[in-house]
Design goal:
By secondary structure, the protein is of the alpha+beta class. 34% of the residues lie in helices and 18% in strands. Strand 10 and strand 11 form a beta hairpin. The longest helix is centred in the last third of the chain and has 22 residues. The protein is globular and about 70 Å long.
Length: 533
């Protein structure tokens, strides 16, 4: 559950097998790994990657942004290597090496069976993965004490033999180099740096690495810009670049407009560039909706005005997205497909979480109702949406107190094609309604009407710009049910003490008279740990 959050190389000479190279750069060329190498190039790649494999095999699974936790890494493939800053043996200046590597992992049971499979069928098994990760590796002979926590290790053999390899973003000197590359657009091997026309990025902004993210890494520069670096990357434009740029074109001020970005163009890895990082204006002094909601709950303050304003802001963003990008109409085939996908997710979750099974039939009724409306001729519009909207993705700015929305990447675990597909705006609305329920649980307001009032106010604010989401109760109920089912599966696997929160919603949504047509307060038990869900 993603709640709340790129690299390069250069030229140089390689030492592919010796255990101590003469002073010189790390790599003999700036390159992307092509489909076929010259024999010497293959040996060089093998020497570099082979020396890093023992270190990465231990370090990578410990990173919060690594998506393959719980499964062993069976191998690595080097996709591209770029030396952004050469390091010479004995030099006082560190080197910066940008790697794109694929991590091979075996398949794993999904914990369920297809909806149409017989009871005797074997459980679903996910195919193995070979996700591509972006790594920024600092290289130094002697690591300064303040960078000791960032140490990955010292390779044995290869061009980096004996040198300290560490997380480059932790080193302000290397993080500053990234900003310089974005200030001066251009290309370095497979890496392409771009800047929005007319944008001037100041030099010398001090970097600060933000440590509280899960799926990505971010660096703040001088309280002026924030660079978001995507760790798991794939061919195609990331929605966190595509959508804010499209919104900027409409004049929408609710989303910080990208100032610069960088990509990788890798032969044989797909026809589209991989988005590696996006630089956007930083909003200093702002507070996210999750923090604000918990602060209000701590003093039993009313949150309805804030929720109403947030609903208004969300509707404005949805309207701008519909203006900037194509929309589609969901008719019977699309609605039946949507309902069937929700049903499959429900069945898989119920097979994996016994507590969900008594409610399966009642919850499925929400999806059946949606499909039935499609068969009766009902249609809905679908468009590009945020895709992972919750209180942690909304910032109230210190300057004017207005709401801004951030992090348009969508749920990183979902394929890019799915995250880029037009969807009903009800999905974003449902995500925010569920977030209010989580805030009420953590804020010990489970016995009050706090969540009910916040949910209603959000819908009212949304309705002041577009139609009130509650006017489409079947569509909203289906999406809120789908979200709650996802939460049940996530909490059961990762945070069992949080399971009562989504289960309270499950009980409400399973009631024939309940559902998303009238926002109601859940009555969940409070989780033991207080973390942002």
């Amino acid at each position: 559950m993603s709640d709340a959050a790129p690299s390069r190389r250069g030229t140089g000479r390689r030492d592919t097998g010796r255990k101590g190279g003469a002073p010189g750069p790390l790599l003999s060329s700036v390159r992307a790994a092509p489909a076929a190498h010259a024999p010497g190039q293959e040996a060089a790649d093998a020497g570099l990657l082979g020396s890093l494999v023992p270190l990465l095999s231990e370090w990578l699974p410990r990173q919060r942004w690594f998506a393959g936790k719980g499964r062993p890494i069976t191998g690595f493939t080097l996709v591209a290597a770029t030396e952004l800053l050469p390091h010479h043996t004995g030099a006082t200046v560190p080197g910066l090496l940008h790697l794109l590597v694929r991590a091979q992992q075996p398949g794993a049971p999904a914990g369920g069976r297809p909806a149409d499979a017989p009871a005797s069928a074997a459980p679903v098994v996910h195919a193995g993965t070979d996700d591509c990760y972006q790594l920024l590796l600092g290289v130094h002979d002697v690591l300064p004490p303040h960078l000791a926590p960032a140490l990955i290790g010292r390779p044995v053999g290869g061009p980096l033999h004996g040198r300290a390899v560490y997380e480059g973003l932790a080193d302000p000197r290397l993080a500053s180099l990234l900003l310089e590359r974005l200030r001066l657009p251009g290309r370095l091997g497979p890496l392409r740096f771009s800047r929005e026309e007319g944008v001037v990025i100041g030099a010398g902004l001090a970097p600060r690495l933000i440590g509280a993210e899960q799926s990505n890494s971010s660096v703040v520069y001088g309280e002026t810009y924030i660079l978001k670096l995507f760790r798991r990357v794939c061919p195609g434009t990331n929605p966190d670049l595509e959508l804010p740029r499209a919104l900027a074109g409409t004049g929408c001020a609710r989303v910080p407009a990208p100032a610069a970005w960088f990509e990788a163009v890798v032969p044989g890895a797909g026809t589209e560039p991989m988005t590696l990082g996006v630089l956007q204006p930083y909003l200093p002094g702002s507070a996210d909706g999750w923090q604000l909601a918990l602060s209000a709950l701590a003093v039993r303050a009313d949150f309805t005005a804030s929720a109403r304003a947030l609903g208004h802001a969300t509707a404005e963003v949805h309207g701008a997205l519909a203006e900037a990008l194509p929309t589609v109409v969901l008719r019977r085939p699309q609605l039946e497909h949507l309902a069937a996908a929700m049903t499959r997710r429900l069945d898989a979750a119920a097979d994996a979480v016994p507590a969900l099974r008594p409610f399966r039939a009642a919850l499925r009724a929400a999806y059946d109702d949606l499909a039935a409306l499609g068969r009766a001729g009902r249609t809905w519009r679908a468009q590009r949406i945020h895709g992972d909207l919750h209180l942690g993705q909304a910032l109230r700015t210190a300057e004017d107190g207005r709401w801004a929305l951030i992090d348009f990447e969508g749920e990183p675990a979902r394929p890019l094609a799915e995250r880029s597909r037009p969807q009903p705006t009800a999905r974003d609305v449902a995500g925010m309604l569920r977030s209010f329920d989580y805030a009420a649980a953590v804020g010990r307001a489970s016995g009050t009407s706090w969540s009910e009032r916040a949910r209603a106010a959000f819908c009212e604010g949304y309705g002041s710009v577009h139609g009130d989401p509650r006017e489409d109760p079947q569509l909203l109920r289906a999406h809120e049910t789908d979200k709650a089912v996802y939460e049940v599966l996530y909490e059961a696997r990762h945070r069992p003490d949080w399971l009562p929160v989504p289960m309270a919603a499950i009980r409400r949504l399973a009631e024939p008279a309940g559902g998303a047509d009238g926002p109601q307060a859940d009555r969940p038990a409070r989780p033991q740990r207080e973390q942002t869900p």
